[in-house]
Amino acid sequence: MTIRPPPEALDDLNAFQLDQLGSIPDPVMGGAAVPPAPSDLGPAPTRAQFWRVRSWALVAAGVWAFGRLGVRAAKGSFDQVPLWYSASHVIVPFVLGTALAWLALRRGPYGLGTATGRLIGLVVASIATFWALAMLLPSLNPIAPEPAGTLSCMGHTLAWVAGPLVLVAIGVRGCFPAGARWRSTGLGAAVGLFAGAITNLQCSAGGHVHMVLGHGSSAIVAALVGGLLIARLSRA
Predict the structure, then answer these.
(1) Cα–Cα distance between 129 and 140 in angstroms, integer?
(2) What is the dihedral of CA 48, 50, 55, 60, to 10 degrees?
(3) Are 58 and 171 in contact (CB under 8 A)?
(4) Cβ neighbours for 55, distance < 8 A, ≥ 6 positions apart
(5) Is-contact 120 182, C-beta < 8 A?
(6) Which position has the higher pLDDT, 157 or 48?
(7) Cα distance from N-terminal residue to C-terminal residue, the chain
């Protein structure tokens, strides 16, 4: 059975005006003021401008790291270093760092970069290899340096890591649409391995513990800086 509204209810509906809806307060907004329109930020940088900044920053990071090596070589600092030492403590870390940097920067088949598991494995394996070579191969100095010497080498290596890390952060800003944390960790570890390899060449008379802590700690610190700080900037 259909129930018809009383005639007085129909009169109320006919008398209702739609413009009265604007006078009803919004319970969600609570009468808050409308936020101002966002200011004009100007045109966004083009892809070419992004790649130009990244390329120059990464080139400057390489010059920072390798330029020091060239200066030391020109002064004849490496003439007495055995070939096996150069191969194991310098060339191997450089190869591992280069592989890490390449995997971290590559676009991958879908533009999403290298698989996270592969990056994690290479980061851990690279740092472990650096430490294993420092501990297992013969030392050129049978007398271990004083703790102050180890701390001095550690500070010296970390100082040379700082510049390239800043340049890398500028170069990869907004660059990684996926896997930014581990890609940035890989770049940080690569910078730390480069710095450790150069310090191995410059300070070749250190003992086992000296080389692990004084020269190899930079890879750990740089990897943490990459994963915790640079990753925030590198997310696209």
Answers:
(1) 19
(2) 140
(3) yes
(4) 171
(5) yes
(6) 157
(7) 63
CA dist., res. 223 & res. 217, Å (int): 10
Q: What pLDDT score was predicted for residue 222?
A: 92
pLDDT in the model for residue 190: 92
Which has the minimum average pLDDT: 4-13, 20-29, 82-91, 134-143? 4-13
3-class DSSP assignment, residue 141: coil
CA pair distance 17, 125, nearest whole angstrom: 75
217-225 vs 116-136: helix crossing angle, rounded to 10:
160
H-assigned helices in 16-146: 47-74, 83-86, 92-105, 116-136
pLDDT of residue 17: 60
Residue pLDDT, tens place only, 94-121: 999 989 988 888 877 766 777 888 888 9
Sort 24 into a burial class: Cβ within 10 Å, 0-12 / 13-18 / 19+: exposed
